Amino acid sequence: AMVLGLTPTDPDVMQEKPRKGFTLLPEIKGPVLLLGIYTSITDIALYLLLWGVLIPGWAQAGIDPQLTMAYSTIGTEAYYYAISLTQTIIFTNLVICELLFVYTCTSNIKPFYLFPNKHLFWATGLSLALQLLILYTPMGLAFRVVPLTHVYYWLTLFIAAFSVSVVDELRKWRIRKKRGMRILRKS
């Protein structure tokens, strides 16, 4: 969050009408609440999708031998692996959602790509590296996570996580359209 303070100022900031006192909280309350609710819905939907469709499908496809064993013998160590895999995907989804959400916070109206911030890029890269450290080292035991060893796991994660950022960018687009604003790309 501190790195957001290093984001360049919007060149059109003087075009905005002056604020009436400190109005930051009402301005960010709506988007943060919307994205908090949407992230929760995404996590619940991802959980249901994992248990209802993806994990049984991955087990049948044989992409992960431990998952295949989980569906043949319930109550064994393999079954607990399936539970840990689901928890790991949900946990990592929350982390990636937050890492992407910070980019959408650069402006309440304009798209995130108009505000380049190399410090924010490095901070999110470091946070992602720490998440990978948790997933792929013995530190994972403390967090009760399992390594995400297949591309299908990561693909599922990124689709779910990016959907949250897409929803926020659509919210910003609606605001711009309502106000009649046009955004020109920087050259």
- Separation, N- and C-terminal Cα atoms: 28 Å
Structural class: mainly alpha
Overall helicity = 55-70%
- What is the molecular shape? elongated
Number of DSSP-assigned strands: 0
Q: How much of the sequence is in beta strands?
A: under 5%
**Uncertain segments of ≥5 residues (pLDDT<50)?**
none
Largest sheet: none
The total count of helices amounts to 6
> What is the residue-averaged pLDDT?
80
Number of domains: 1
Taking Cα atoms only, what radius of gyration do you get, to the nearest Å? 20 Å
SSE pattern, N- to C-terminal: HHHHHH
List keywords for this structure.
mainly alpha; elongated; 187 residues; 6 helices; single chain
Structure description:
- With 187 residues, this protein is mainly α.
- It has helices at residues 24-61, 65-72, 77-104, 118-136, 140-143, 151-179.
- α1 packs across α2, α1 packs antiparallel against α3 (77-104) and α2 packs across α3 (77-104).
- It is elongated.
Question: Can I get a quick summary?
Answer:
The chain is an all-alpha fold.
Give the topology, please.
Layout: H1 24-61, H2 65-72, H3 77-104, H4 118-136, H5 140-143, H6 151-179
Helix pairs in contact: 1-2, 1-3, 1-6, 2-3, 3-4, 3-6
